[in-house]
Amino acid sequence: MAPALLGFSFASPIEKPKPKAEVKKVNEVEEIEELRMKNKHLLQQLEESRRKEAELRGEVEETRICLYRTREAEERLCTQLGELEAESVEQARAYRQEIISLTERLKQVEHLLSAANNEGIQRRR
What we know:
Elements: E1 4-5, E2 8-9, H1 20-124
Antiparallel strand pairs: 1-2
């Protein structure tokens, strides 16, 4: 093609103007190449999104496993806590009984001492 002047192009005497069918074919080839490039880019994006999806699915699976283990641990801790609470109630009852028993023995010893003191006082007289 000859150089363009003010937006008009002039055919040089050496170059023959291309027929419209050939220009149309060149445009179609360019369009096809452009579509191929877009398709290639879209396929790359699809592959990248699939890779990210697989990565996220892996993370979700890891999180699900972690959650399951955490729930299991929570259940074990709750069971242990319940057992400890029951044991502490039993110990509190046993200590209360021991205190009651010791209090009764102390009263008996005080009563015996008081009686012995009274007897000792009466003998001295």
